[in-house]
Design goal:
alpha/beta; 7-stranded mixed beta sheet; about 30% helix
Length: about 290
């Protein structure tokens, strides 16, 4: 018998919560923060936590909706592969409308013109920034996620641009190295796995349409007219459109905290779907 020896039990890490519970809690939090987002719809939408989390441990949520194709469109040789559309909101946490409008557009995915497309929806890429008080552009570590992507020019230009052009604006800090942030790393991994034909990135508040990469550029979505804003070291447009050759549409809403009217939301959506179908949908799926 061993006397005087204290046996210390090693606590096991808590079991991960079921994805449904994580999704429910996440939706309640976002619904409380964004009054235009219904927590009930969020829960019923099919959003589920990925394997990645933010700096502060918040779930990075995603929703994938395969195409709903009629049987006559099936193709053994893959010629009828539906276009893959990746939509991302909330890369900048203080652009609240960029998150809200993604939820509004998710309600339209079952329409005939959108149902033939393969969707990957990420409504909020920067949950920590959104849930700050006040909300902030950067993530919890103070990095602008839209300057942290691994573009070929990052090492040469990212810090020089930040110092020389922005005068070390903390809102546009690109990080010390590319892909230093878990949120950026996760987005790059999702792009690699999903292999999108088009990336739609929602921002605010410039009220324009930007475009990077191949394919015929759209001239306008609703009231938003094309106005190329330039290519920045470490940006998603640079990473996807220039480096990976995937067209990146940046929808810049007119206001960061005030939603477009229902009519304008619909007009942007309709023009976006029309452009996607004209440029990426095979003839036998139209």
């Amino acid at each position: 018998m061993l006397a005087g020896i204290a046996l210390v039990a090693v606590a096991e890490p808590p079991a991960p919560l079921p994805s449904e519970i994580v999704s429910s809690e996440w939706c309640e939090t976002i619904g409380n923060r964004l009054f235009s987002v219904s927590a009930e719809f969020c829960e019923e939408s099919g959003l589920r936590p990925s394997s990645a989390t933010s700096i502060e441990g918040r779930a990075l949520m995603r929703f994938e909706r395969p195409p709903q194709l009629p049987r006559r469109s099936a193709s053994i040789d893959g010629a009828s592969r539906s276009p893959r559309i990746m939509m991302i909101g909330g890369i900048h946490g203080d652009e609240l409308t960029s998150v809200s409008i993604v939820f509004k557009w998710m309600e339209r995915l079952n329409r005939a013109d959108a149902s033939q497309l393969h969707w990957l929806i990420i409504p909020l890429a920067n949950p920590d920034g959104l849930l700050m008080r006040p909300a902030q552009r950067m993530n919890a570590r103070g990095v602008d996620l839209n300057r942290n992507f691994d573009t070929p020019d990052w090492s040469d230009k990212a810090m020089r641009y930040w110092v020389g052009r922005t005068r070390k604006d903390p809102r546009r800090f690109p990080g010390r190295v590319p892909v230093s942030e878990p949120e950026t790393r996760w987005l790059q991994e999702e792009i690699t796995k999903f292999r999108p034909d088009v990336i739609v990135s929602i921002h605010a508040p410039y009220g324009v349409l930007d475009f990077d990469g191949p394919a015929e550029e759209p001239k306008r979505f609703g009231r938003l007219r094309l106005n190329r804003l330039g290519v920045y070291p470490g940006s998603l447009g640079n990473y996807g459109g220039v480096h990976k050759g995937v067209p990146v549409i940046t929808i810049e809403l007119p206001h960061a905290t005030r939603m477009p009217s229902a009519r304008d939301q619909e007009a942007i959506w309709q023009d976006m779907i029309k452009w996607i179908r004209q440029n990426f949908v095979p003839a036998n799926l139209t």
